[in-house]
Design brief:
Blueprint: E1 10-15, E2 19-23, E3 26-29, H1 35-46, E4 50-55, E5 67-70, H2 74-83, E6 89-92, E7 99-101, E8 122-124, H3 128-133, E9 141-148, H4 152-163, E10 167-172, E11 189-190, E12 192-196, E13 199-202, E14 206-207, H5 208-220
Parallel strand pairs: 1-4, 1-6, 4-5, 6-9, 9-10
Antiparallel strand pairs: 2-3, 7-8, 10-12, 11-14, 12-13
The structure holds cytidine-5'-monophosphate.
The site of cytidine-5'-monophosphate has 15 residues, from α3 and β9.
Length: about 220
């Protein structure tokens, strides 16, 4: 049997959304099923990598042959990722909430007649990818994702620099390609472009498992 190309390599993968609490029963989140991130973790493990998956709240099962850490918030995800450094590569697939509430209430916020809705004060979450991309323990290969509804390529190119990534996997989540069981978010298929310093490579639409297999092969290369 041929040796597996990623044997002995530690790779961190983030997947799923984060949940940012408003109070004990309510939260703010991004749309993400975790399907693409979990598929990438599994595909890297198949190539022999020692994969450490950090997953936000999802309803799908932990991938086989991968050590999974479960987190809720962006702050917890950042802590979990940093505790797994150093690593040979890191792939940031999670749809991290950009903002969290400044002060999550300790008790359920009550609806009081005549008082109207509460206003939420939001503060920025740390950018986990950018933190790792510019870390002194930066892995040799750092891959980010970009889901955009507009200006996909220019946004991905800007993210490459700002976040210190080697590749950005860009997907268009506008209109019909977007949300729900047949869309990119929640569905089983994906259409991505690989944006790097070398340029933009457009992949045809394919299943998320196939995107994962091809991306794992690219990472191994
Ligand atoms: O800036 P934007 O959220 O579009 O960037 C997406 C990329 O950055 C993804 O790879 C995502 O996992 C990562 N990210 C992160 N921490 C954040 C926001 C995004 O790691 N707070």
């Amino acid at each position: 049997e041929r040796p597996k190309p990623l044997a002995g390599r530690r790779i961190i993968v983030t997947s799923g959304p984060t949940h940012e609490p408003i109070d004990p029963v309510r939260y703010i989140a991004n749309r993400s099923s975790g399907k693409q991130g979990h598929a990438i973790a599994a595909a890297l493990a198949k190539l022999g990598a020692d994969v450490r998956l950090v997953s936000g709240p999802v309803t799908i099962a932990d991938p086989a042959c991968v050590i999974t850490t479960h987190v809720e918030t962006a702050a917890e995800m950042k802590g979990a990722v940093e505790s797994l450094l150093p690593a040979d590569a890191a792939v940031f697939v999670a749809a991290v909430a950009d903002w969290r509430t400044a002060n999550a209430a300790g008790e359920k916020i009550k609806k009081v007649a005549g008082e109207g809705p509460p206003s939420l004060q939001m503060i920025e979450n740390p950018d986990i990818l950018a933190g790792v991309g510019h870390n002194r323990q930066r892995p040799g290969l750092v891959v980010g994702f970009a889901a955009e509804t507009q200006d996909l390529i220019s946004n991905a190119e800007a993210k490459l620099k700002k976040k210190g990534a080697d590749f950005i996997v860009a997907n268009d989540v506008s209109h019909e390609s977007g949300i729900g069981p047949s869309g990119v978010m929640g569905g089983d298929r994906n259409k991505v472009r690989i944006v790097s310093k070398a340029g933009v490579e457009e992949w045809p639409e394919m299943g998320k498992d196939e995107v994962a297999t091809r991306l794992a092969a690219l990472i191994a290369e």
